[in-house]
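Let's practice the habit of predicting before peeking. Look at the sequence and jot down your guess about where helices and strands might fall. Then scroll down.
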Amino acid sequence: MRKITKVVARQVFDSRGNPTVEAEVYSNNVSSKAICPSGASTGSLEAFEKRDISNKKYLGKSVLNCVKIINKIIAKKIKNQNVHDQERIDHILIKLDGTKQKSKIGSNSILAVSMAVKKLSAKIKKIPLYKNFIVKKNFKLPFPLMNIINGGAHANNGLRIQEFMIRPDSAKSFSEAIRMCFIVINKLKKLIINKGHSTSVGDEGGFAPMINDNEKALKLITQAIKKSGFINGKDISICLDVAANELYRNNKYSIHSKKYINSDLTIKKYKNLIKKYKISSIEDPFAENDWNSWNELMKNNIFNIQIVGDDLYVTNLERIKIGFLNNSSNAVLVKLNQIGTVTETLEVIKFSQLIGFKTIISHRSGDSEDTFIADLAVGTNSNQIKTGSLARSERVAKYNQLLRIEENLGSSAKMNNIN
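Done guessing? Here is the structure:
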């Protein structure tokens, strides 16, 4: 047994330039670090992110109290614990907070420590991190859901839909998947330049051209796919993250234009988009508590596309159980900081896979160089990973780690199933 001997926290910065928590956990002279990410488009039921709102030096965004909590309180509580007993350590952290949404000491305080413990365990065992989760053999690589155009809360253009993504469905390896996305992105860049738009990027690395019509973005993507020599809906498919919480008011939605319409009309318009642009996945098509609309879309899912719950579930087991009984979706987005510990995240993944949901491991818009989620995706045989575009090093770092994992697996490396 290897015991935790020391825990040290510090304030570092995320990809949006905001403060965040890094924790470093030691077992004698061996240590591992982890950085907690932060979301922009967040569900109201997510675990609580603690910030120093009264600290004007950092405009109320610092996490120095979290650092203090880890160094003064958490460090004492988990000292001498077995570094390989993740469940026990996470239970101590959950109990220490004692609130449903981890609002006392903050999920960002807890998660940074939880992730660092998992990394340290793998380091001591002298195994790659991806081998320290659920799967022990027959590892599979996830398909990337690659963000190529940003809208909504991730950009300052007029696009209603938050993320326009591509998935390289015909790829036979992860390296081939990345190559296919690379080609489409470069063709898209030329098209955007030819239209006279800027090729500046949003929070997650996708282009953020100053266009304000969803269909204009979709037309650009289909053109880029065609110019790349691929077939839309076969080689490459288009996937959307609507983030409908941001577009919901008085039981109506303004997803397809600035005009608010009821959910029946919204579903009708979704069906038209799916058919016209061969869309294969829609994330958060409705608001987090509009269970009826989710159920109606599933009942009207005539094209059998992937319908993904993010804000709907917030990586919370109880919410996923409700969604399963309500027939709300057929896939779940998994974000570590929505729930706050590695153990709870793994419980969500195991249950979701048991009931037949596809699991998609996801970054946050405020992310870091930490590549934990790349290993998590492989170590849980999750179908897909969502970690932004081939731009901004905090996004590319995850793809690079998956390329390393594929190389490490050698001839046994296989792509996961998305059908």
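How did you do? Residues 54 and 211 are 38 Å apart (CA to CA).
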